[in-house]
């Protein structure tokens, strides 16, 4: 398996001025500096898609901007799972000897670089072009359907999901780079604007500007490097009308990652789980096995996902509060887990020794699933 040697994460939020490429460059340079490398040391570049850039060759574009002349370069697009999918490819490249030092980057000006209507129309295309998009559906609407089904199946009221948003905001309060840091309550979630019933504004992640990056090596270069112990993927559907809500793919990808790492969920000390909506987080936690069916919200309310809880979760604030800058949003979970495993998370640091972390990303409407198990050196 490969090793994550350097990480970079910018602040997230509505930050006019820098372009998508600018955010990518900022994150890339931070990750290289963190790894003790320069652009001349990189021989592989992988870059995630950016809805505000639309360039056919994003990796070559970034490489040229910062002076890299890589042996291997390509762009990737599997929605929110893109960052971890690129990690899987980077690990495969260094393990096979095709590259020695791979830079993985994402970033875009999604909040300030396009209108809300444009963003909604672009993201809505994950829906079926004949049976979903013509009906006016958008991403919040797709996830609202999942939320309705989830709540009905478990006999829950919409407020059952609210503690997950409250927990993410509590964690974001300790991160200077987070888009939203002011604490919220369950009552705040319940009284926020209705977006797509039963989801309210605070059930939904914001749209953000920002970037994230990391460097993958074949062998560790220092005691700070974090081992990619196991990875798994599952892609069982594209359109929500074809989804099996009892088997979305998260369980399969997580079990494969755990199997390859030679561990079980009992060995996991903390987790970074994709949280585009509160229902996304609840369904992923429960399918993976980190929460009992229908209990994710109750576990959050009981403090089990707090930094001092049973399984600290999204200690940077997740997509719901740190923010969601496209592919970089999912990569922020990975960056935070690396910082925690290094013991470098500062005020956010879990106050007990952590050895292993599980990170999971979801693309589309629970369509693409990628899981990674990370181990401290």
Question: Can you offer a commentary on this structure?
Answer:
With 377 residues, the protein is α/β, with parallel strands linked by helices. The chain has a domain at 3-113 and 208-217: Thiolase/Chalcone synthase (Peroxisomal Thiolase, Chain A, domain 1, 3-Layer(aba) Sandwich), CATH 3.40.47. It has 12 helices and 11 strands. It has helices at 20-35, 58-66, 82-96, 116-124, 139-154, 162-172, 186-191, 250-261, 278-288, 296-301, 318-321, 327-342; strands at 3-9, 44-48, 72-76, 101-109, 194-196, 199-200, 209-217, 226-234, 270-273, 356-363, 368-376. The strands form 2 sheets. It has a 9-stranded mixed β-sheet with strand order 3-2-4-7-1-8-11-10-9, with helices on both faces. A two-stranded antiparallel ribbon has the order 5-6. Helix 1 (20-35) packs across helix 2. The radius of gyration is 19 Å and the shape is globular.
């Amino acid at each position: 398996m490969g090793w994550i040697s350097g990480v970079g994460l910018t602040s997230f939020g509505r930050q006019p001025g820098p372009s998508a490429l600018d955010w990518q460059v900022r994150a890339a340079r931070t990750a290289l500096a963190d790894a003790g490398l320069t652009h001349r040391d990189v021989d592989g570049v992988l870059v995630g898609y950016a809805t505000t850039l639309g360039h056919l060759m994003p990796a070559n574009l970034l490489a040229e901007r910062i002076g890299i002349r890589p042996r291997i370069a390509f762009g990737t697009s599997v929605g929110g799972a893109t960052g971890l999918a690129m990690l899987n490819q980077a690990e495969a490249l260094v393990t096979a000897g095709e590259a020695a030092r791979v830079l993985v980057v994402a970033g875009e000006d999604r909040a300030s670089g396009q209108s809300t209507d444009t963003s909604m129309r672009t993201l809505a295309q994950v829906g079926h072009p004949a049976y979903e998009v013509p009906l006016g559906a958008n991403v919040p609407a797709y996830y609202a359907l999942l939320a309705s089904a989830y709540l009905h199946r478990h006999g829950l009221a919409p407020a059952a999901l609210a503690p997950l948003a409250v927990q993410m905001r509590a964690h974001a309060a300790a991160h200077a780079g987070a888009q939203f840091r002011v604490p919220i309550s369950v009552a705040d979630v319940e009284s926020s604007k209705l977006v797509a019933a039963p989801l309210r504004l605070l059930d939904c992640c914001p749209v953000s500007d920002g970037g994230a990056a990391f460097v993958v090596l074949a062998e560790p270069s220092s005691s700070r490097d974090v081992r990619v112990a196991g990875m798994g993927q599952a892609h069982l559907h594209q359109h929500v009308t074809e989804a099996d809500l009892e088997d979305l793919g998260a369980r399969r990808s997580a079990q494969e990652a755990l199997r390859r790492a030679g561990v079980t969920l009992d060995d996991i000390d903390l987790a970074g789980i994709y949280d585009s909506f509160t229902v996304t987080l609840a369904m992923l936690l429960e399918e993976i096995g980190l929460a009992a069916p229908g209990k994710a919200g109750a576990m959050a309310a009981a403090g089990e996902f707090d930094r001092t809880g049973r399984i600290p979760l999204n200690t940077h604030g997740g997509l719901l509060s740190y923010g969601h800058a496209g592919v970089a949003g999912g990569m922020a979970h990975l960056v935070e887990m690396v910082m925690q495993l290094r013991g470098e998370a500062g005020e956010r640091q879990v106050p007990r020794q952590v050895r292993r972390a599980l990170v999971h990303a979801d693309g589309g409407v629970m369509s693409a699933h990628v899981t990674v198990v990370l181990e401290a050196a």
